[in-house]
Recover the amino acids of this structure.
């Protein structure tokens, strides 16, 4: 073993031991799982109830800590945009329209049936998860991911052309950016009306209703659109690279 | 009983994540990773976090393996092309 590798291994062992020690000490001081009283939990639930939000987790992410969620959304936006940019078609590459890898007739009947049957159901579940993010477990991120994944059932069922019609890329580009801008706009309106950025300024409604919790469902919807569009665009670029785009002299 | 289920699931997470790290071929690794993502998602359901589980299963068991498999397909085709170009010379 070279001394350099040995040095690295010692460094790794030190790092692992340090992290493990800190984790063990940290976990030891955590409140017990399922305890009734939890310092942060009690305060977060009280704040959530005061804004008539049934899902306390939704209240934490989109009301009490909405600023952190904005950071998270911007990271997602930047990452998806850069990946899409890297995977764009270059000048020396051709797009081979005739070559789709496989078409509808190559797919097993059962897979085709399952994909076709589950596509609308999955899209509906995605919309439901986004729309009820302030009432039940779920929200914009989860719903958006379900929407994006569900849309690719159209590809599994065998038709890349159907998938392409489901996701007009140029429109999704605008929708994605628009949703990010919308999040910022909701925050700025809060700043203008109440003096604090991302304040809950929309009328709160009554507890447990679909229209309640003020800005929480609005932000949930915007994040859902952003996440769904970003993932669809991202996977679309990968599919294009693998199925359509040919580099110089690259055979199908 | 609940603890037993959790212990089994957590053991599954440890085994599958280690298996993912030790699978060298990226194409196979994507499949093992998909199984790991699924078990991790079920673990989150057992821990009463169904919303996180939903996104974990969608991203970890579907989108990430799909992206890896598509990348492997593309890279293999380019490598094959380079190999053939070398043989012609």
């Amino acid at each position: 073993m070279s001394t350099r590798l040995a040095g690295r291994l010692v460094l790794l062992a030190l790092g692992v031991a340090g992290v493990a020690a800190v984790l063990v000490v940290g976990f030891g001081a955590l409140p017990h799982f399922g305890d009734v009283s939890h310092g942060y939990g009690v305060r977060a639930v009280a704040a959530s109830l005061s804004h008539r939000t049934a899902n306390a987790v939704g209240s934490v992410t989109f009301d009490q800590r909405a600023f952190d969620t904005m950071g998270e959304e911007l990271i997602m936006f930047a990452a998806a945009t850069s990946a899409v940019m890297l995977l764009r078609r270059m000048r020396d590459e051709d797009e081979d329209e005739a070559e789709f890898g496989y078409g509808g007739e190559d797919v097993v009947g059962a897979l085709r049936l399952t994909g076709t049957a589950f596509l609308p159901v999955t899209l509906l579940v995605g919309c439901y998860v986004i729309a009820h993010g302030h009432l039940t477990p779920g929200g914009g991120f989860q719903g958006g991911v379900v929407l994006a994944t569900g849309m690719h059932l159209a590809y599994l069922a065998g038709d890349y052309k159907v998938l392409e019609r489901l996701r007009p890329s140029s429109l999704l580009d605008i929708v994605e950016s628009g949703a990010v801008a919308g999040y910022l706009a909701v925050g700025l309106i809060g700043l203008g009306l109440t003096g604090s950025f991302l304040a809950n300024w929309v009328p709160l409604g009554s507890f447990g209703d679909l229209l309640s919790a003020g800005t929480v469902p609005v932000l949930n919807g915007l994040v859902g659109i952003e996440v769904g569009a970003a993932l669809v665009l991202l996977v679309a670029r990968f599919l294009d690279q693998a199925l359509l785009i040919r580099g110089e002299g690259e055979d199908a | 009983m609940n603890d037993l289920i959790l212990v089994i699931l957590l053991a599954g997470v440890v085994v599958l994540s280690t298996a993912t790290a030790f699978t060298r071929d990226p194409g196979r690794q994507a499949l093992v990773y998909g199984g790991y993502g699924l078990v991790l998602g079920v673990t989150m359901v057992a821990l009463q976090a169904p919303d996180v589980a939903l996104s974990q299963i969608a991203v970890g068991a579907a989108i990430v393996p799909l992206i890896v498999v598509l990348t492997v397909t593309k890279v293999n085709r380019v490598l094959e092309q380079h190999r053939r170009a070398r043989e012609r010379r």
User: Anything to note?
Assistant: The mean pLDDT of chain B is 88. The radius of gyration of chain B is 18 Å. Chain B touches chain A at residues 49-52, 54-55, 58-59, 62-63, 66-67, 70-71, 73-74, 77-78, 81, 85 (CB under 8 Å).
